[in-house]
Design brief:
Tet_transcr_reg_TetR; DNA-bd_HTH_TetR-type_CS; transcription; transcription cis-regulatory region binding; 208 residues; 2 domains; Homeodomain-like_sf; flat; mainly alpha
Amino acid sequence: MARPRQALLTRERIVEAASALIDAEGLDALSMRRLATDLGVQGPSLYNHFATKAEIIDAVADAVVLKVDLSVFDGREWPDALREWALSYRAVLAEHPNIVPVLAQGPGRRPAGLAMAEAVYGALVEAGWSYARATHIGALMRYLVTGSALGSFALGFDVDPQLYERYPHLHHAPLLAEHHEAVDEGAFELGLDLLINGLRARQEMGTR
């Protein structure tokens, strides 16, 4: 009886397996040996596609960025486009929180990351912002989106009511964990709206 044929090892399969492992167990769980085991191949075969583990992590990060909706920059006013892009980016990061520390460092040489930076920066420059100010806005947006995705504000508080007897203004803190999604999403959208509205006001005053 013929042995079943093993699925062809490709860059795409490696990235998918690495992404699944990182999502499930975190960046520290990823190793060439573990990845080869998960794929059912010998470790050296991975090096036919990636020279290092760092290259695989970069590829995983770029695959995540590819899920962000950049079509919002086609034909929309920059405030609406920037807001919709930020919401899409944060939603994607919420699905892959363990890769956020890599993305928070910037695009490096990753094609999808650079394409996203080009889309954001290009939209701002075309809207009349100076090169310097567009750079500042791009940095602000990265801080806001990736920073909000690095961890939950609401889950940072203990649920023991007795802990807050000495802190009367924090008496609602034990409830935050139960409503952490609403709290965190509400805080992000508030910050996003304040940022964009503030930028719009500066532009209307002629400060670019």
